[in-house]
Amino acid sequence: MSTTPEDHTDPEDTGRASEGAGQPTFEPATAVAEAPEAGHDGPEHTGGEPSAEEGAEAAAAPAGGGAFSAETFALVGLALLAVTILSGQLVQILTSMILVGGQPIAAEQIAQIRVQIAAGGTLALLTVVASLLSLALRAVATRPWARWAAMAGTIVGALFVLVGATAFLLIPEAAPPQPMMPPF
To answer: Which one-letter DSSP state was computed for residue 10?
Structure first.
């Protein structure tokens, strides 16, 4: 009975490469555009330890992820954007100010409207800051979804800041206080 790999043709063969076959290498997507390296055309590396060239490449490429990475700030920006959108304050206040059309409203309402605009505008501004920080921290190892999320957070957050500023500018003047009616 022979136990060489050539004689083993059972369906149990999982397609594992023999010890002499090359192992797949996983490289960043930018490596596709580069010229083929000598390591891919010449003898294949089968040892467990990386070669000196591979070790230098791994040390030069920054590791992705981490607590203060572009991905983290992209997720923070998306969370802040979700809170801004789901609160709906800025769009609702802008719509109300457009419908009021400059008619005077009570002074108490103006103070309340300003506080709501400040809260919504601050969340939108924090969204923009977190998203811009994510874009500033991006590196070669940054995942594409983090770049897209950061750019989307920047654009939509900036639009909400603009909505808040417009609503603030459309706040009408306070109505004169009504005279007190004597009780009967």
So the answer is: S
| DSSP conformation letters of 133-179 | HHHHT--TTS-HHHHHHHHHHHHHHHHHHHHHHHHHHTPPPBPPPPP
Tokens of residue 1, six digits: 């009975």
Q: Is 183 exposed, middle or buried (0-12, 13-18, 19+ CB in 10 A)?
A: exposed
Q: What tens digit of pLDDT does each residue of 115-156 get?
A: 999 999 999 999 999 999 999 988 887 888 889 999 999 999
Give me the half-sphere count of Cα atoms (radius 13 Å) on the Cβ side of residue 7: 4
**Whole-angstrom distance, CA of residue 102 vs CA of residue 93:** 13
Neighbours of 105 (CB within 10 A): 17
Q: Which two tokens stand for residue 8?
A: 């083993």
Range 137-156 burial, b when 16+ CB lie within 10 A, else e: bbeeebeeebbebbbebbeb
Residue length, the chain?
Answer: 184
Cα 80 to Cα 172: distance, rounded to the nearest angstrom: 29
Give the pTM.
0.60
Distance CA 50, CA 42 (A): 16
Q: How many CA atoms lie within 13 A of 51 on its CB side?
A: 10
